[in-house]
Write a structure and sequence with these properties.
heterodimer, A: alpha/beta, six-stranded mixed sheet, B: mainly alpha, four-stranded mixed sheet
Amino acid sequence: MTGAAVVVERLEKTLGKNQVLRGISFSAQPGEIFGLLGPNGAGKTTTLRIICTLLSPDSGRVEVVGFDTRAAQQEVRKRVGVVTADIGVYPRLSARENIAYFARLSGVPDADLKRRVDAVIERLDVGSFADQRAESLSSGQKQKLAIARAIVHDPQVLMFDEPTSNLDVLASREVREFMVESKGHGKCVIFSTHVMHDAERLCDRLAILHQGQVVASGSTAEVRGSRRDLEDAFLELVGVK
Amino acid sequence: MRTAWIVYRKEITEILRDRRTLMAIGLAALATPIVLGVISQVATKTATQEYTIGYSGDIPAGLGDLLRATSLKLVPVSDPAAAAARQVDIGVAFAPGVIDEFYDPSRQSAQIADTRLRTVLGQYSAAQAAAALQQRGIDPGILTPVRIVGHPLSSPIQAASNAFLSFFLPYILITMILTGGFSAALDSSAGERERRTLESLLLTPAPRSRILLGKIGAITTISLVAAVAAIGSMFVALSLISLPQDSGIGHITLSPVAVPVMVWVAILIAISFSAVTLALGTLAKTFRQGQAYVTPLYFITIFPASIILFIPDFNPSLAYYLIPILNAVLVLRDAIVHNAVEWPTLAVTSISLVATGALAWYAALRLFTREALLTRS
């Protein structure tokens, strides 16, 4: 599709003896939230890791904002921000230092660094704990910090891999609001989840993965079809109903 | 190199806020003076301690005073052999022209008392023989037809000082470099996986080779700080504690040649072993697992080096200088004892340590770029 932020074509990947991906294809546009849905082990995280260049595909190809993930890894990494459920932060650095560290590594120039860090701190309402060491932060605060770290270099593609699975109701809501806000800023948001309710509310389009294959894709309404909700559609598509 | 500098600064900041590493450096600074203090106490006590001789029979005229002047206390006993087994350090039975000595060689106090007794008896016998000859009008010089006149080529005191330093300094230097950076290296490698920051770090466009260089640089710095703290405190301790006079060690100084050699070798060891520890730490999923991988390395490297320190006249071929750590000990010992640099051995040592560091850095880089690093966790 022309103008797609992320293009995934016939992706295959085997980890150990397990073929995790069996020819996955989809594309995601700027200014939309694209959902990757599937049960545990469906291949969602592996797909995201290939898109952000952490893993290489065995076959198939991925393009991010026009850059091939195998040929131009550095360019892809500059344009991608990833938030996962594993909120790893440097405990002995403050929230501000954590953000600044990743900004520097992502190539933000020193002259622009303070402005960028202050901007994400304000945008994500991190100011109240910005100078606290990360080890003293709550899970919700750490997740905000992880998001701030992922977006400080202003990436065009944002990927959220089960971002709310360890969070309370309030923190989960803030993450969801942030995804919607990012979409409004023209970012391509890829949202991997197995929470159907979240996907139905947030995603413009989605793909359902099952056993390493896309079993359905399209707009949320198209995938839901005539079923009562997305959960029913999902269960039917993965063969439970 | 901007990336390496960014990583270096962040790692140093984290290390300086890590109680484990600060405690390791603090202990490094404290341990050396404590060990030297204990050695000084033991050495002084041994030199001035009085030992007891249980004797029977009549003490030859004048010998009693000589023995007492050498801190050998004389106690009359009925059975010197039985007394030497428990009550006293050695037993002696004086008879005209013969002295029977009874001692247990497995007891250190008996060995020391025996040495002192034999020294005093040697002097006493020589004096008695000289007096007897003089009474007969014969020159006592005939007892020593060949006299030895020593002409030491260097100060015996400096030689004793060098021997002392050549034993302690390489051991302290290497131990502190290895242990000083231990915690920082594991925190920087296995710790990244344990805290789940590794994935975020690898997601940045920063080249992984530069990330590793920054980490190695930070670990090297901390290792050297620990070594400087330990050696600095060692010299402070040596200027404050007193060593026994008969040890021959007066004012301990490091020769001008040894200082630059020590600095150079210390930097090489720190770089190469920071890389090795980092590579091993990268294999581990947790800090604790990293400890299990790295601890054997410490023993494997320090053990041969320690053995060499107990062989003072070990004269190795050039091939020995290829063995990392052992080579550093040998080069340092040569520089301290002989006050000279042997360039071939220093060159081989430098190449060996640099090659070790480069190989470890390459191994760490390969591990850092393996998908299994992420998928295994």
